[in-house]
Amino acid sequence: MAAPGLDQATAALGVGIGWRAEIDLSVERLGVDFVEVVAENVCTDHLPDSLRELRSRGVPVLPHGVSLSLGSAEPPEPARLDRLAACAQALDAPLVSEHIAFVRAGGLEAGHLLPVPRTREALAVVVANVRAAQDALPVPLAVENVAAVLGWPDDELTDGQFLAELVGRTGVRLLLDVANLYTNQVNLGLDPVAALDELPLEAVGYVHVAGGVRRDGVWHDTHAHPVPPAVFDLLAAVCERVRVPGVLLERDDAYPSDAALAAELAAIRRVVQNAGAQNAGAQNAGAQNAGAPP
To answer: Rounded to an integer, what distance in angstroms lies between the CA atom of residue 42 and that of residue 53?
Structure first.
């Protein structure tokens, strides 16, 4: 199944930030194009005033799930799917997202987004779970690649191949986290640019960027530090290959000033605009060369 084309509501999301209660007023003041909210932190019967204010301004609010456990051997729990669907409806969201990860097994909660083995058996499980989620949700689903500290042995597929096959078999969209690609480069030695070249980038719904920190040779995806240059470089690499509908800054702790957040958002806009201009120039040159006489 081919990835669906992006509809008008998601084709030009712009630049956004993860909404958190700790910075709700900051988010309102920053004038972002869209926001993302952790779905499990939202009470659909009593939305936070800040989210209702943003919605009144026409700012899209995208629910971002963390507990479906799409990588578990068991299918997603109906109650969790119902809650995510209700969240999408309450926020009038154009799409929702979740992680390609598992957070529970055998009734035990891990308390963390654990990476899925990149095997064909695991892929079949994720495909079935994604299809179940798609059937239960009122809007399109985007799935996010996760960061890892350790890898599974005996992988049969690369990250890019795994995601590409998942998209091809389900038509699901991608929430491409370039910070997680960088994390896996440092911690697992995986080539993020090779992953980009294997991905169906036309299926990208939007992109995540975030900061982290290196400790004892391990990169920790903290969402509590400024976005490093290497992550901006990967964002540029994506934008040079495809027009990205939206880019979202994640920040979950150690919140800086409004000015610091605004500066990071401005840096994201510059990367998107500069890389996009290069992409457009390359396409125009290619079209001209194609039309030139032999």
So the answer is: 15
Question: Is residue 84 within 8 Å of 44, Cβ to Cβ?
Answer: no
Q: Map out the domains of the chain with their CATH numbers.
A: 10-289 (3.20.20.150)
Please provide residue 174's backbone torsions phi and psi, each rounded to the nearest 5 degrees: -110, 135
Q: How far is Cα 112 from Cα 45, in angstroms, rounded to an integer?
A: 27
* 218-254: pLDDT as tens digits: 999 999 999 999 999 999 999 999 999 999 999 999 9
Q: Give the DSSP H or E segment for 183.
A: helix 178-188
Which pLDDT tens digit goes with each residue over 109-128? 888 899 999 999 999 999 99
Angle at 232 between CA 226 and CA 237, to 5 degrees: 165
Torsion of the alpha carbons at 221, 225, 231 and 235, rounded to the nearest 10:
110
Q: What is the pTM of this model?
A: 0.92
Helix (H) or strand (E) holding 284: helix 258-291
Cβ-contact 202, 3 below 8 angstroms: yes
Q: What is the pLDDT of residue 292?
A: 58
**Residue environment code for 23-54, b if the CB has 16+ CB neighbours within 10 A, otherwise e:** bbebbbebebbbbbbbbeebebeebeebbeeb
